Amino acid sequence: MRKVILGCGITLDGYIARPDGSTDFLVMPKGAAKVAEDFYASIDTIIFGRKTYDAMQRMMAQGEHEGPVGPWKTYVFSRALPSGERDGMTFVKESPAAFMRQIRRKPGKHICHMGGGELARSFLQADLVDELWMHIVPILLGDGIQIFPAGFPQRDFKLRECKTYGNDLSLVYARAREKNTGRKTKKAR
Amino acid sequence: MRKVILGCGITLDGYIARPDGSTDFLVMPKGAAKVAEDFYASIDTIIFGRKTYDAMQRMMAQGEHEGPVGPWKTYVFSRALPSGERDGMTFVKESPAAFMRQIRRKPGKHICHMGGGELARSFLQADLVDELWMHIVPILLGDGIQIFPAGFPQRDFKLRECKTYGNDLSLVYARAREKNTGRKTKKAR
Lengths: 189, 189
What we know:
The structure is a homodimer.
Chain A: E1 4-11, E2 15-17, H1 33-42, E3 43-49, H2 50-61, E4 73-77, E5 84-86, E6 89-92, H3 96-105, E7 110-114, H4 118-125, E8 131-137, E9 139-140, E10 145-146, E11 155-165, E12 168-175
Parallel strand pairs in A: 1-7, 1-8, 3-4, 3-7, 4-6
Antiparallel strand pairs in A: 2-10, 5-6, 8-12, 11-12
């Protein structure tokens, strides 16, 4: 089965970007290039939300990002932008759940949800995230754009991998959907 | 020099408690008892904020917490409660910076700031945190009380220790106060 992997680079206080959207604090650590290479070889689809798309467009305009180049299919979720294919990307208006039902029926490699933020919340609400690939840099930003904005039910995971690269940390978690994980799931009142 | 260690048990999405203050998801993992023991042997002072104090009082009333028993001196920061000693604790109205200047002049072991939340923000604003001891459980809560509420300047750290206990992760970070950490510190606009 094709897995949905939420891939993110975050600070110790859980931010994917500064309040202005910049991500200068995310630097690929020595030795992590191979991990990134293996990761990109395991996926054929990348998904992100409209705000990540906007940030990418700004960075492309400033020559800081080369856009979604690669052998993967790229989808952008946006309720506001017209749906359909353009600029090498497919714009999607559907709900994450409806979209994922369709895409999982087709054969293919894993699907990477890049970034986090509001689209991550939608994916977690619908319990669509199968794995978390988190790269954690050793800073507290004090403010920024959150990887996991509040507003979804408890989701339990299992730690599958933990590696350090100097002061950076690379973690892989797999969703634990079986009932008996040993941790209580408490319903919100 | 006596260090201030922020000790916390958090979820993957950075919560120290559910929205109602409960922390049932924090269970001491097998093998971590020795770490906790060594930690408590290295400190002689525990500091927490009024909300942690309130939560502890509630848990004590329900027989779920035995209170701040131990050979350490306990301080509760509160602007609202009367200052002074009572019930084995010392209530403090001073700013964290003024308080820490005094306490660091006295000889002693390290000082543990337990919990996080609003008092952690005050400590980070004044750059009083020397180490982070973070125990991370593999769940996304989706909502709760944040360990690092927004509102302090960027603080850089170095990863000093990383251990796994089953699906839990135990991390120690030390504050990197020297200028040249290789990561940009961007001023807020």
